[in-house]
Each structure stands twice: as C-alpha cells, then as structure tokens.
Amino acid sequence: KCGGQSITYRELDARANALANMLADRGAAPRRIVGIALDRSIEMVVCLLAITKTGAAYLPLDTQFPENRLNYIVTNAKCDFLLTRRRLADRFANTGIRLIVLEDLPTTGQIYDRPIVVRQLDTDPVYVLYTSGSTGTPKGVKVPQQALVNFLLGINLYLKMEPDDSLLAVTT
Fold first, then answer.
1. d(CA 61, CA 89)
2. What are the backbone dihedrals phi and psi of residue 161, each rounded to the nearest 5 degrees, phi first?
3. Region 28-48: what's the mean pLDDT?
C-alpha cells in the first residue's frame, strides 16, 4: 500500500517484468547504471524492482534536491538513462542523459511480461548512493550484490526472523 493505492505481489512482479523487458531492450544490463527520479509511490517500487531484474544498478535521485545537484550526480555516475515522470523531466534537460518518461511507455498489457534472466557477478553493483559530500561535492558509492545479500542475511540471522514476521526498514 502507498498513498491509498495497493498492489498484489503478483501484480508487482508482472509490472516489474514488463518494465524490465522494456529496459533491457533499451540497454539495461549488469554493470550499467539506471537513474530513477520519482516520488515515493507504488510505481517507484515497480521501477526499482524492474531495474534490479535487468541486473543493472539503480541510482535513486531525490526529487527534492536542487537541479544542479541532480545534474552533477547523474553526470558523475555516468547513468545510461533515467526513469522519471514528465513533470520532472525538465530538471534533467542539461545533462544530455537519455530519459524514459513513464507516462510515454506502453501499458503492461501491451508488453510481454516474461521474467528475464541475467548473469551477474557478486561484485556487480546493485545500487549507487551519493553521500552529501563533506567537501560540498557529492560522492558516489557503488554497493555490490554481495554486500546487499550479506546485509539481508545478517539482519535475518540477528533478528531470527520467521516466515510470518515482517520488518519495517528505515533506510534511504
């Protein structure tokens, strides 16, 4: 649930598979970086899952950041392309980055929603985060697949989670 909307896991998976196929057709693959500039929403979760399914790393961009900071991060990270909404697209006009505007994509009913299979290395990045930059210039950190898996396994081991447990994660 998010903002009065809800989605089942089956719908989430189907929508993410459809988008992942579109992204893969546009070049999303392991060791590539796909920016995502969206407000928190179900669509954002679909996009994050879709990017992950392609094997590409996602670069989350806070839509509240100043335009010059967003442009620096997108350029510095060498994003292959950026997922966003039409109302936010102008904020990235000076980057030269290829934009994928969600409103311009076909509906999932028009797309084959098969899962895609990719080969990844443990060292491939799963996401890229930018720090605030103590020097005033943001710095990017690529988080590899193995670090995320170790984190999740460690949390599970520490909390001794059972199948019916749920966890509220408070992270960026």
1. 13
2. -70, 145
3. 94
